[in-house]
Amino acid sequence: MSDPIALSRDPIAEARRHWQDRGWTAAAEGMAAVTSIMRTQQILLARIESVLKPHGLTFARFELLALLSFAREGALPMNKASARLQVHPTSVTNSVDRLERAGLVRRAAHPGDGRTKLVEITGQGRNVVERATLELNGTVFGNPGFSAPELDRLNQMLGKFRRDAGDFVDTRFPI
Amino acid sequence: MSDPIALSRDPIAEARRHWQDRGWTAAAEGMAAVTSIMRTQQILLARIESVLKPHGLTFARFELLALLSFAREGALPMNKASARLQVHPTSVTNSVDRLERAGLVRRAAHPGDGRTKLVEITGQGRNVVERATLELNGTVFGNPGFSAPELDRLNQMLGKFRRDAGDFVDTRFPI
DNA sequence: TATTGTTATACTCTATAACTATA
DNA sequence: TATAGTTATAGAGTATAACAATA
Fold it and tell me: What is the pLDDT of residues A109-130, one digit of tens each?
């Protein structure tokens, strides 16, 4: 962005007032919350990408690298990576292409299934993701702009939301 | 997405455990919350866009139309729209191009400043945004997946976050 | 037949730089 | 000189469809 000037009033609070004025009371709070989540995501993503850029990573590629670094043998089938990251298979293909060109991952044959390809993190990939993670931890993740109780509430609320949305099946957030 | 299969375990909770195991305790909760916000935004955006698609709108274009529908005279200078929507000027140019081609907005000269152009919503634009809003209110905004107290907490927390991030200057969230 | 992954293609939003017109 | 907006260009993620190889 060229000049992210601070507005004198919260545009989302203003929109909520307009919703109220129109009589859309039942949807006003939801509209405000949803829009706030959108904007918060945008702010956080910008911070993350500015940290990752010097490491030659985008957030999508960082997430893939981090996932692989935690996997057994540092490798996963493409479709497992796609499922775990909740992204489209073609997005994984694209990410792996870039990461492979940068020498951070490599493709390997699956021992049991000839259709399947494994993505495997390289030693260089481990170094890069380790350094990037430490810097992210020291900046965004370690100082996200929410207090400890707020983080707790967020993780609880959003965890429940994601479960209800069908992201995963889990019993730690009982219905 | 082709097959958004529900995972058996929450991938974000799993990542948090890995963070803990590595000793990145101070950043674990923040990482989980930030990642949860990212994923929640993705889910909500997908719902919104699926509602808007039959109306010929994306979320970015809907937001612009909604902003104009609340503006005096239904018109705003391009740079005001850019500031209020927190998007790059070229993004506004692009959105206005598409909306203008669809007959939902028009460009007009600014009476006092020859450099400035106004974006003005058309009657057709008002009809479209009204119908789209009602449908969004009846689905996503009116039923966002959070309880009323949760919405309240979210609006409070994210409002404060956005203010601290420099999005706007306001006194309703005192430091 | 079904599944895995790739390719080709297309459409978002985003961003920088160069440019025109106006102040 | 500074500002408003556009254009050109590029990059990102996302998505569908067609395809090859394998099960």
Answer: 999 899 999 999 999 999 999 9
Map residue A58 onto helix, strand or coil.
Answer: coil
The verdict on B70 touching A (C-beta cutoff 8 Å) is yes
Task: Say how far apart CA B168 and CA A4 lie, in whole Å.
Answer: 10
- Output b/e per residue, B116-137; b: 16+ Cβ within 10 A: ebbbbbbeebeebbeebbeebb
Alpha-carbon Rg for chain B, nearest whole angstrom, is: 20
Tokens, residue B1: 């997405």
Token reading at A58: 């985008």
Residue with tokens 């039942």: A26
What are the tens digits of pLDDT across the range B35-71? 999 999 999 999 999 999 999 999 999 999 999 999 9
The answer to whether the CB of B51 falls within 8 A of the CB of B62 is no
Task: Say what percent of chain A tops pLDDT 70.
Answer: 92
The answer to whether the Cβ–Cβ distance between A38 and B29 falls below 8 Å is: no
Beta strands in A81-169 (DSSP E): 105-109, 117-121
Residue B118's DSSP bridge partners are B77, B108
Nucleotide at minimal C1' distance from the B114 CA: C22
The pLDDT score that the predictor gives to residue A8 is 63
CA distance B136 to B132: 6
Task: Look up the protein residue whose alpha carbon has the minimum distance to the C1' of C12.
Answer: B58
Q: Please write down the long-range contacts of B14-21, taking CB distance under 8 Å and 24 or more positions apart.
A: B15/A66, B15/A70, B18/A70
Nearest CA in chain B to A81: B11
Is the whole model's pTM more than 0.85, yes or no?
A: yes
- Report CA torsion sign: B165, B45, B97, B69: negative
Q: Are B109 and B118 in contact (CB under 8 A)?
A: yes
In terms of DSSP bridges, do strands B75-77 and A105-109 run parallel, antiparallel, or are they unpaired? Answer: unpaired
Contact between residue B26 and residue A141 where contact means Cβ atoms under 8 Å apart:
no
- Portion 5-24 of B in contact with A at CB < 8 A: 5-13, 15, 18, 24
Question: Using the CB atom, is residue B115 less than 7 Å from strand C?
Answer: yes
